[in-house]
TrEMBL record:
<dbReference type="GO" id="GO:0003677">
    <property type="term" value="F:DNA binding"/>
</dbReference>
<dbReference type="InterPro" id="IPR016032">
    <property type="entry name" value="Sig_transdc_resp-reg_C-effctor"/>
</dbReference>
<dbReference type="Pfam" id="PF00196">
    <property type="entry name" value="GerE"/>
</dbReference>
<keyword id="KW-0804">Transcription</keyword>
<dbReference type="GO" id="GO:0006355">
    <property type="term" value="P:regulation of DNA-templated transcription"/>
</dbReference>
<keyword id="KW-0238">DNA-binding</keyword>
<keyword id="KW-0805">Transcription regulation</keyword>
<dbReference type="InterPro" id="IPR000792">
    <property type="entry name" value="Tscrpt_reg_LuxR_C"/>
</dbReference>
<dbReference type="InterPro" id="IPR036388">
    <property type="entry name" value="WH-like_DNA-bd_sf"/>
</dbReference>
<feature type="domain" description="HTH luxR-type">
    <location>
        <begin position="111"/>
        <end position="176"/>
    </location>
</feature>
<protein>
    <recommendedName>
        <fullName>HTH luxR-type domain-containing protein</fullName>
    </recommendedName>
</protein>
Length: 188
């Protein structure tokens, strides 16, 4: 059972998020009052939630939850969010994002294998893709088949919890991939 807090400045959206997540049996959802007392003043023992779904990231969010899922109209830059979800996303996308964030909480506690841990070969593939190489170019560089690269990319996307290659590359660049070193070596 994952504990999910919903803190949104618009009550209707908070209600809709609560309704969407209430359909999932392994989520225990609580809607928080944004006008409530300042949670940042409370002592930070253990966060009461595994995941906080909110429309504004702050240091107070880190005291409320192990992972913060930010819902907003544009991708945040250095706002303190662990995860990001566009506010026009579908309920299914919301559920997937909450589950992904919750799994990362459990993996950091050692309950499940680390979801974001890539094998050395997967990291190489990610570096080449993030540098702008095609699957075929990556395969040639690594001396493997394009089908193997395709398989690595699918596994990387699953491990990183992203839906497409563009999200995978953005996340790789945000994590500090070695893409620049790869491009400096030149392409073949």
């Amino acid at each position: 059972m994952y504990r999910v807090g919903v803190l949104h400045s618009h009550p209707l959206i908070a209600w809709a998020v609560d309704r969407a997540l209430a359909t999932v049996p392994d989520l225990q959802v609580s809607v928080l009052d944004p006008a409530g007392p300042d949670r940042a003043a409370e002592p930070a023992a253990a966060p009461p939630f595994d995941v906080l779904v909110t429309d504004h990231a702050s240091t107070a969010g880190k005291q409320l939850a192990a992972r913060v899922l930010l819902m907003c109209p544009a991708r945040p830059v250095a706002l303190g969010a662990d995860e990001y979800l566009h506010d026009r996303s579908s309920p299914d996308d919301l559920i997937k994002a909450v589950h992904g964030a919750a799994l990362k909480v459990r993996s950091s506690a050692g309950a499940v294998p680390a979801r974001g841990a890539l094998s050395p070969r997967e990291q190489q593939v990610l570096d080449f893709i993030a540098a702008g190489l095609t699957h075929a170019q990556t395969a040639r560089r690594l001396g493997i088949s394009q089908h193997t690269v395709d398989t690595h990319v699918k596994r990387i996307r699953t491990k990183l919890g992203v839906g497409n290659k563009a999200e995978m590359v953005r996340l790789a660049l945000a994590r500090g991939t070695r893409a620049l070193a790869v491009t400096a070596a030149g392409s073949h």
